[in-house]
Amino acid sequence: MNTITTSTAINHSARMPVFFIPHGAGPCFFMDWNPADTWDHMAAFLKGVAGTLPGTPRAIVLVSGHWLERGFSVTGHARPGLIYDYSGFPAHTYELTYPAPGDPALAERIVQRLGEAGAQARVDPQRGYDHGVFIPLKLMFPKAEVPVVQLSLRHDMDPAAHIAAGRALAALRDEGVLIVGSGMSFHNMRGYGDPRYTPVSAKFDDWLSAAVESDTEQREALLREWASAPHARDSHPPGGEEHLLPLLVAAGAGAGSEGRKIYSEEVMKTTLSAFRFG
């Protein structure tokens, strides 16, 4: 599946869509894998995202499944470093770079917007980008020139709170800010590579796709109760839904916009998908 509109014009004020993307397995795109082509199609999808935008983003707000805090936190450093929060991979994958600047002023505005929406939020002046940020962005925006602010998830993983957080940030889209949820539509470590999970993941993905493609009110109602979906807990085990929650933030930010699936593929015996709003 591919998006159908492309643009290379620079327009920082254009209303940006919102994305939920898969970020793969650790640094999978930058190392050998067996089979060798396991991640090729996902990498090609990520490399093509920028070309579907109405212009170059003024900044990127990215929520990753790898940062959870008691309340929402945002990176406030002007030059965030990288957090190599994966283990057991080749030595060169701990030398990957992504020198995208931060945007402290935008971070403060995000905290303000979340606070006005009733959410506890703070700026973290020291935290860097985890691999849910820099791994996909190395493919999407390889020049690392667009400022990036990372948003955390909340430890309580409350669906409604994460949808509401996305809604609080939706207006940033009109300022040329690209909002991205980075996770995995299926994330059960026991299921990867197990053919028993092929129909399981496909069934959940069908439900998830239908939910995303619903109108805003129904979409949010369904996503608030995602754990009741067919094979929901086989796809995201209890307490392990952190890779799905970035989609809920994206859906909130995409309120009022059409949602649709833009990529889907069977990887390691499981269905993985990406979605776009707007």
Would you write up a description of this structure?
By secondary structure, this protein is of the alpha/beta class. It is 29% helix and 20% strand. The protein has eight helices and eight strands. The chain has helices spanning 40-48, 104-116, 131-140, 159-169, 197-212, 216-224, 232-235, 245-253; strands at residues 18-22, 59-69, 72-75, 121-124, 148-154, 177-183, 259-267, 270-277. The strands form two sheets. A six-stranded mixed β-sheet has the order 5-2-6-1-8-7, with helices on both faces. A two-stranded parallel ribbon has the order 3-4. The longest helix is centred in the C-terminal third of the chain and has 16 residues, at 197-212. It is globular, with a radius of gyration of 17 Å. The protein starts with 17 loop residues before the first strand and ends with a strand.
Share of helix among residues? Answer: 25-40%
Major pleated sheet:
6 strands, mixed
Structural class: alpha/beta
Uncertain segments are 2-10
Oligomer: single chain
Short structural summary:
The chain has 8 helices and 8 strands; from the N terminus they run βαββαβαβαβααααββ.
Helix and strand layout, with pairings?
Layout lengths: L17 E5 L17 H9 L10 E11 L2 E4 L28 H13 L4 E4 L6 H10 L7 E7 L4 H11 L7 E7 L13 H16 L3 H9 L7 H4 L9 H9 L5 E9 L2 E8 L1
Parallel strand pairs: 1-6, 2-5, 2-6, 3-4
Antiparallel strand pairs: 1-8, 7-8
